[in-house]
Amino acid sequence: MNFPSNLRYSKDHEWVSIDGNTATIGITEFAQSELGDIVYVDINSVGKSLQANEVFGTVEAVKTVSDLFLPIAGTITEFNTALEKQPELINNDSYGEGWIVKITVNNTADFEGLLDSAAYAALVG
Questions:
Q1: Beta strands in the chain (DSSP E)
Q2: 30 neighbors 71 (Cβ within 8 angstroms)
Q3: Taking 90 as the threshold, does the pLDDT of residue 1 lie above it?
């Protein structure tokens, strides 16, 4: 499994990259492999301010629907609309074209409180 060292990770299997006060969020390679083929992404939280660990949407795979939890507090500013027609981007490129949302972060220090790649790799075994 690939867990890029420039990202941070949540125990709920989301990844975060940060640039200034903007964070990009998606699900990890581990999460998408556990879910299987993703067929739909439902994000209805654009424009909403959410706290860390609040649900910001769902991903639907062939056999299950899974909640997406915001790893750090902020306001959802953008949804990756490419996922509307190509939800499989999450399976094919979970850390690139398969990103899910961008947020304006309330406190960028929260990013440092997430798991680094080694800690996340240990978590998923």
A1: 8-9, 14-19, 22-27, 38-42, 49-50, 55-61, 65-69, 74-79, 101-105
A2: no
A3: no
Judge contact between 71 and 8, C-beta under 8 A.
Answer: yes
Is 115 inside any structural domain?
A: no
Q: Is residue 119 part of a domain?
A: no
Structural domain tally of the chain?
Answer: 1
Instruction: Report the distance separating Cα 21 and Cα 64, nearest Å.
Output: 33
What percent of the chain clears pLDDT 90, i.e. is strictly above it? 97
119 to each of 61, 75, 108, 123, how far by Cα in Å? 27, 27, 20, 6
Dist. CA 112–CA 63, nearest whole Å: 34
Q: Residue 73 sits in which domain range? A: 8-108
Does the predicted model carry a pTM greater than 0.85? yes
